Amino acid sequence: MNNTNNTDLHRTFLSVVFITEGIVIAPTIFGNLLLICCIKRYKALHARSYILIGSLAVSDLLFGLLFLPYDMLTVAFPIMREYKITCLLRAVLLYGLVGASNTNIFIISLERHIALTYPLWHLKLSWRWLAGSIAVAWIMPLLMAVLPVLGWNSWNVDLKCVYKWKDAISSSFLMLWSYSNVSLLVISCILFFKVVFTTFSFLNNKSPQRGQFGVQRQLSVTRRTSIEKTKVLILIVGFFVLCWGPYCLLIIVKPFIQEQSKQRKQIDMAEKYSGFLAVCNCTLNWVIYGLKNKRIRHTFKLTLCGRRSRHENGLDGISTISTKQEQFSQLSCVK
């Protein structure tokens, strides 16, 4: 009787997953593709920070293009869960793309930290450094995700993947993946808090000197720009931690709980639903950037309305002014 109830609950959960992923997949693909096109199309979005945002958008786009449709297929056709390669391929897509998103967020936090803490060095950062950072952000998580396919798995012919996807993935691999991603999340949060502290300390304590032409206006605009960027970073890091933090922590805690115990069953249930929450994260980032970043929001409007020639020169002018304001802010921090 209990097995029948558990099977019914699992099927109900899979149905909810299928419906939710079907709802999420369209805005995930559309929004991240729109963001990538805007970054590629408009010179105003060719700065380092926006290129890193574009790399994060690519990981979210691939999550919507590859993982979500594949996961929906495995729910619609349960026979796919009975084969080793299909189970392990899901692990590669899930852990590889999520790891890439996490690493890209870490690189974004690091870049913002360098911009405020070491402004002169940040101004000298080459595009080669940027390309190398993006390459590392993709290569490392993808290499880790391929390990189950290369043999680091716990595939069981009798158990298969019919009821629990994680049964095909070694618990030691899940621990390594969770520890590495939690570590990156912690470091990103530390860098993030340092960025917040540095930004608001400078904005609150820095007062313009009399007799300097244009300094008051320059600092006023810089104040708004810095606060806007800080708020966006708060939301991006905050939502990622909120969505993926519980899932990673449960995987770390679970091996220390005794099998077949009531607490273990509760953790298994919590892990299932926290993973469901984590899947929805890929559709949030482009919405946050579109709502909170004025320049990206403006390019969204231009692209969706099909108006480029009339407004792009003005947007590029804003880009030049904003870049000079950011450089002024960074140099003022050094002084």
DSSP summary, beta strand count: 0
* Spatial gap, N to C terminus: 73 Å
Largest sheet, in brief, is:
none
- Residues in helix, %: over 70%
Strand portion? under 5%
The average pLDDT is: 76
Shape: globular
**Structural Rg:** 23 Å
Describe the protein in words.
The protein is mainly alpha-helical and 335 residues long. Helix content is 79%, strand content 0%. The protein contains eleven helices and no strands. It has helices at 2-41, 48-76, 84-117, 119-124, 127-146, 171-205, 215-253, 262-279, 285-292, 294-305, 312-334. Helix 2 packs antiparallel against helix 3 (84-117), helix 3 (84-117) packs parallel to helix 6 and helix 6 packs antiparallel against helix 7 (215-253). The longest helix is centred in the N-terminal third of the chain and has 40 residues, at 2-41. The protein is globular. The relative contact order is 0.13.
SSE blueprint:
Blueprint: H1 2-41, H2 48-76, H3 84-117, H4 119-124, H5 127-146, H6 171-205, H7 215-253, H8 262-279, H9 285-292, H10 294-305, H11 312-334
Helix pairs in contact: 1-2, 1-9, 1-10, 2-3, 3-5, 3-6, 6-7, 7-8, 7-9, 7-11, 9-10
Organism: Mytilus edulis
Keywords: Cell membrane, G-protein coupled receptor, Membrane, Receptor, Transducer, Transmembrane, Transmembrane helix
Membrane topology: Multi-pass membrane protein
